[in-house]
Design brief:
The complex is a heterodimer of chains A (about 90) and B (about 140). With about 90 residues, chain A is an alpha+beta fold. Chain A has one domain: Roll (Ubiquitin-like (UB roll)), CATH 3.10.20.30. The longest helix of chain A is centred in the N-terminal third of the chain and has 13 residues. Chain A is globular, with a radius of gyration of 14 Å. The N terminus of chain A is likely disordered. Chain B has about 140 residues and is an alpha+beta fold. Chain B has 3 helices and 8 strands. In chain B, helix 2 packs antiparallel against helix 3. Chain B is elongated, with a radius of gyration of 16 Å. Chain B starts with a strand and ends in an 8-residue tail after the last strand. At the A-B interface, loops of A face strand 3, helix 2, helix 3 and strand 7 of B.
């Protein structure tokens, strides 16, 4: 039992999720990047990286450079980004 | 086919001329459609003196490539150019240049229109405008009027 718990902890410690914030959200959250040891989905990553800040209704999410949803699952090594509606062009 | 982001000022007509000078499609294209987006000195607020264009570099590059590829699949384009500015710009500075070359006008015109609309809704760029009262993030696209 002890052995399997140790393995679980070891596995969690080995995970790495990169979280990025852009534009007004970067300013609101107060930092550009956060590294998380674990997050099951984008929503959990948001909650952990913002200290449970309420997610804006128009929040956009990208996982590994593609648009995703808050419910989208995260895997070890993923990069999840949060940003407001885009306004280029 | 080319798409990139520029951290320094861009000269739209020079970029288009340079792209055309590299082409080997002379005689094949009958239409060139262009869109140039330029910074205004007004928005919902007056007297905008400067603007900061932020982006998500890796995703921007991916999306500009994806848009260009999609346009090629939808229309018979012979060449395509997309250049978007980032960093600090002032009124009168070019923000985006899109040019499409095709044998007949409809493909170039439609592709150019589609590209600017899709870019505005998908590519991860954000604008922060400044006037004497301070800076404010632009919260959405205009409908193009």
């Amino acid at each position: 039992m002890v052995s399997s718990n140790f393995k679980l902890a070891e596995t969690i410690n080995q995970m790495s999720i990169q979280v990025k914030f852009f534009a007004s959200l970067r300013e609101k959250v107060g930092h550009n990047d956060v590294e998380l040891a674990s997050a099951q989905n984008a929503l959990e990553a948001w909650q952990l990286a913002t200290n449970n800040m309420t997610a804006p209704e128009n929040l956009l999410v990208a996982i590994n450079l593609d648009y995703a949803k808050l419910e989208s699952t995260l895997n070890d090594g993923d990069e999840v980004a949060f940003f407001p509606p885009v306004t280029g062009g | 086919m080319s798409s990139w982001v520029s951290e320094t000022s861009i000269e739209p007509w020079s970029l288009i001329a340079e792209q055309q000078s590299k082409q080997t499609i002379q005689g094949e294209f009958g239409a060139t459609a262009t869109f140039i987006g330029t910074m205004r000195d007004f928005s919902d607020r007056p007297d905008i003196s400067r603007m900061l264009l932020e982006h998500y570099p890796a995703m921007t590059s991916r999306y500009l490539d994806k848009l260009e590829q999609s346009a090629r699949e939808k229309w018979a384009l012979l060449d395509c150019l997309i250049v978007h500015r980032v960093g600090e710009v002032t009124p009168g500075d070019a923000i985006v240049v899109i040019a499409c070359w095709s044998a007949h006008r409809r493909a170039a015109l439609d592709a150019c229109n589609w590209l600017i609309e899709e870019l505005k809704h998908q590519a991860p760029f954000w604008k922060k405008e400044f006037n004497a009262q301070g800076g404010e993030w632009v919260t959405g696209n205009t409908d193009g009027h």
